[in-house]
Amino acid sequence: MTTTSGTAGRVRVPLWVRGTNALEVVVLAVVGTAVAVEFVIAGIGLNPAGLVSAAVIAAGTVIGYRYAPHLGLALVAAGPLVAAFTGWLPTHNWSIACFAAFLLTLRGLSGLLTGLVVGLANFVAAGWYAGTLSVELNPEASIAAAAALVLAATGSAIRGQRQYFGELEQRARDAIATREAAVDRSVAQERLRIARDLHDSIGHEIAVVSMRLGAAEVHVTTDTEAAAEDLRAARTSVQSVLRETQEILRVLRVGTDDKVLAPTPDHGRVAALVESYQAAGLEINAVLSGLQHPLPRNTSTAVFRIVQEALTNAERHGEGPVSLNVSIDDDSVLIEAVNLRRSDGRDTSGGGNGLVGMRERAESAGGRLVTHDDGRIFSVKAYLPADEGEEQ
């Protein structure tokens, strides 16, 4: 009969292996009871030899079980010899020694060594007491030796099975831990990707809101209709931010929501992205070519997000027109954005997350990002592979 170990996943461990510790206790109890009976018999017969031999085996069992296995083995083997050499019937003593050998092999002693040592001692003790080693005349000697070998081999086999199933349990635990760690890493990477998308998209919308509100501030005293249009566009952008934030939070929230989210932006929407910035008031000189070329999904998303972040940075920290070049062919993708730094004294230093995000986007697609800043002109260049085989 077998059962499933709760701590080892699906490893099925036989009950007799799982109960090895209980088996040791049972064997100790058997040895202790047998020694006590031997003490009683020797005490009734007033024979010190019986008492000494039983005491030697008892001491060897305790010492071998708790402290020094090899010393304990030597004392267990000496018990039957002491009995035989002092004229005490060694049958009880070699029987006890066999059980002690079984116990010591369960505790880790070599089955071969234990069987040979105790078996030889039993053989000599039985032969010495009977006066002959002939199997025809004294079969007890051979039986005593064989019993020691069998019990020692049995104990060694049980210990080997216990170690084998212990290793299986440990491997199962390691496999479970490895799988859980892989799942945790995947979740963390996905959350990082979602956070990066949230940063890119919200940064774009906030930039549009900022430009619309700036335009409304200019138009409020001269053209109320234009100011109202700017405010309406700003409100639309804020609503877009709220919708996207709610969708991202819905993804991150633990629960069952079957709503299908919008697809991840791709390079085919770059032209519409540029138009949204231009409609918000950002002057962009854009040269877009090859947008019809198919790209790996990861690269396609990276193109959109890098352009989006480059334009957002230009609006926040630059002035004047932005020169944007997106060129896609069968082999590579080039994204280049150039703008002037602000000259009105406003702080243009940012937290650096935008550049970090663009660099991570480029590297995740197998490419690289290069920036240049001379204090007046700031440029970003991204080089990405366009080959399908580059997708990770």
UniProtKB/TrEMBL annotation:
Keywords: ATP-binding, Kinase, Membrane, Nucleotide-binding, Phosphoprotein, Transferase, Transmembrane, Transmembrane helix, Two-component regulatory system
Xref: Gene3D superfamilies: 1.20.5.1930, Histidine kinase-like ATPase, C-terminal domain
Sequence ranges assigned to domain Signal transduction histidine kinase subgroup 3 dimerisation and phosphoacceptor in this UniProt record: 190-253
Transmembrane segments: 22-41, 71-89, 96-129, 141-158
Catalyzed reactions per annotation: ATP + protein L-histidine = ADP + protein N-phospho-L-histidine
InterPro entries named in the record: HATPase_C_sf, Sensor_HK_TwoCompSys, Sig_transdc_His_kin_sub3_dim/P
Documented EC number(s): 2.7.13.3
Gene Ontology molecular function, alphabetical: kinase activity
Span of the signal peptide: none
PANTHER family the record matches: NITRATE/NITRITE SENSOR PROTEIN NARX-RELATED (PTHR24421), NITRATE_NITRITE SENSOR PROTEIN NARQ (PTHR24421:SF10)
Protein name listed in UniProt: histidine kinase
Naturally occurring in which organism (per UniProt): Brooklawnia cerclae
Organism classification: Bacteria, Bacillati, Actinomycetota, Actinomycetes, Propionibacteriales
